[in-house]
Amino acid sequence: MFARMSQISAGWRLALQLGLAALILATLVWPRVERYFLRDAAQQNRVTLQLVSDGLRAALDRYAPLPNLIAAKPELARLLQDPDDARLTERVNDLLLNTAISVTASDVYLMDMDGLTLAASSYRKERSFVGRNFSFRPYFTQAAAGGLGRYFALGITSGERGYFFAAPVRDGPRILGVVAVKFTVEPFEAGWQAASSNILVTDNAGIVFMASRPDWRLRATVPLTPRALSVIRANQQYPADRLALLDIGRRDEAGVDMAVINGTEYIASSGDALASAGWTVTALRRAAPARLQAGMLFAAIALLVILAICVASYLRHRAAQRVQVHKMLEQRVEQRTSALRHEIEERRRTEEKLRRTQAGLVQAGKLSALGQMSAALSHEFNQPLQAVKAYAENAQTFLDRGETGEVRDNIGRISRMADRMAAISRHLRNFARRPGEAIGPVPLNIVIDDALAVSAPKLKSSDVVLDYTPAADAPWVIGGHVRLQQVAVNLISNAVDAVGGRGRIELRAARHGEGWRVTVRDNGPGLPENASEQMFDPFFTTKPMGQGLGLGLSISYNIVRDFGGTLWGETHPDGGAIFGIDLIAAEVPMTEAAE
Ligand code: ADP
Asked: MF terms per GO, please (predicted)?
């Protein structure tokens, strides 16, 4: 639930951050990025403008003095003074042609004071200037008045746009005529094609007379007044009816001068560097690439920002998740620990219960054995008691007869019988006692002797032959005297039961590896089928109801295990069952060794 809520709030937080980032990007970043690229493009545009203006200015500066230089040639004055001299006309024509070629002018021509062309570099051409009158051109009037004529116009004869320079031809102070030099503007425009900006040159009437784009040439950038139109017509400067309007919408955007022409947006830079000629040069650079670059950079920035926000949010989410997982693990560890503690407590209690039960069972086992043996025991006690009675009666008789020797013999027999009964009772007492004894070195052979003494009544009451070989060297083993004896009694008793009261039992005590092994082997039927696993379990018995508790082997097993030994049992390959007690060898105690 908590995790889900934090997930939802994390989602909201991410959305909020993205929204905020979008707002900042749109209001603060985008205008800056766009302005940067527009200004950068404007800067480059200004450089182009500068280059174009410098080129034009250099050309004008180069051409302006030419008419004066040409006018100084004496042939020109002479021809003006003698216009009918055919040879001179021819020479002047050649001279003008050569001059035109050397200065790369499109035309060089000489006019008299009426504006009539006497000689021209184009004299050989079909549409020669010779014989034409240019008195209507302002450059003629300017030069005829003694000044330097400059003029831009569409050539009447050639149909080419050209720039005209004119200077008076003098004879001393007297002005005889005018020499004019015409340059076409196409080479400039051709040069501008390579520039990254469009170039537009307007005259002071606002008419485009040079442009890198052909469709912009000879267009008016401002609506022409009727007065301006009439002047153009009078000078035959441009074909007045063709001067359609080129609509240039200018505006300012972030300090950058923008222009829109026929729906295309340009960054505009204008310079009146050619003010002397009355020209305004404008460089127009398309704004779209700058905007595209800005858009791309902006997109990259936006992507980065979004990515950074997403990554940060992801990392935060991961960290939160880790903390949560950590908490969960801690909780689980805590739960597990308390469960374990509980389990340990439970086990301790169970063990305690088991220990108590086991102690009780040991006792029960003993009592059961006692019960089983009681019949045999009563027989065992009865027999000596009857003997004691008989010996006592005999002794009385011998005493009456005064046969003291016989009396002494009978009393001695009575005493031995009493000893024997005392021994039996001592064993029984030992057997019945709860095992409070310590575990330590016990003399193995003596323990077995005691066990045999306890088992004697049962053995005797049956028809069993016991073959006992005690261990050599009277070894000591680790154990408890009474309990080890109880185990041996148990095995012997089981063997007697197995042979069915008639058979043979082999009892051996011998070295086994580092320790000692006591084996009880019988020639009975061997272990019941599949019993080897279960026979050490409590209450496993194959004996009829009332005869076996199924506790003997399980108690014995635990006793031997307490001694650090092993109790085992199997069916012997040669028939019968064999049970073994493997015990740890013990040092002979000092007191015993001294004895
Ligand atoms: P109980 O003698 O009361 O049955 P034990 O724990 O002493 O209990 O023995 C368990 C079972 O192991 C016996 O019922 C018997 O089936 C089997 N058993 C023990 N000793 C022998 C043996 N010497 N030969 C064959 N089976 C045996």
From this structure: ATP binding; phosphorelay sensor kinase activity
Site to substitute for ligand 1 among 494, 523, 570, 572, most atoms within 8 A of C-beta:
494
Q: Give pTM, 2 decimals.
A: 0.51
Rounded CA-CA distance 309/312 in Å is 5
Distance 494 CA to ligand 1 centre (A): 6
Cα distances from 89 to residues 67, 133, 401, in angstroms, run 18, 17, 213
Query: Does some domain include residue 507?
Result: yes
Same domain, 173 and 218: no
**Of 362, 492, 493, 497, best ligand 1 pocket probe by most atoms within 8 Å of the beta carbon:** 497
Between strands 463-469 and 502-512, the pairing is parallel
Residues within 6 Å of ligand 1 by CB: 494-495, 498, 522, 524, 527-528, 531, 535, 540-543, 548-554, 577
- Give the closest residue to 508 by CA, choosing from 456, 558, 472, 477: 472
How many structural domains is the chain composed of?
4
Are 144 and 245 in the same domain? no
Residue 295 CB neighbour total at 10 angstroms = 15
10-residue block means of pLDDT along the chain (595 residues)? 59 87 89 92 92 87 90 93 93 95 92 95 90 92 91 79 92 93 89 88 87 90 88 84 85 90 92 73 93 93 91 90 93 92 91 81 63 58 82 89 89 85 64 66 94 90 92 92 92 93 92 96 91 79 72 86 93 94 91 61
Answer yes or no: is 8 within a domain.
no
- E strands, 384-514, where? 440-443, 463-469, 476-479, 502-512
Residues 104, 215 share a domain:
no
Q: Could you tell me if 117 and 196 lie in one domain? A: no
Are 574 and 551 in a shared domain? yes
| Domain limits for position 245 | 187-290
- Rounded Cα distance, 230 and 227, in Å: 5
**Token couple for 365:** 């086992």
Single out the residue in 125, 158, 183 at which a domain terminates: 183
**pLDDT at residue 209, rounded to an integer:** 85
372, 468: one domain: no
Please check whether residues 452 and 568 belong to one and the same domain: yes
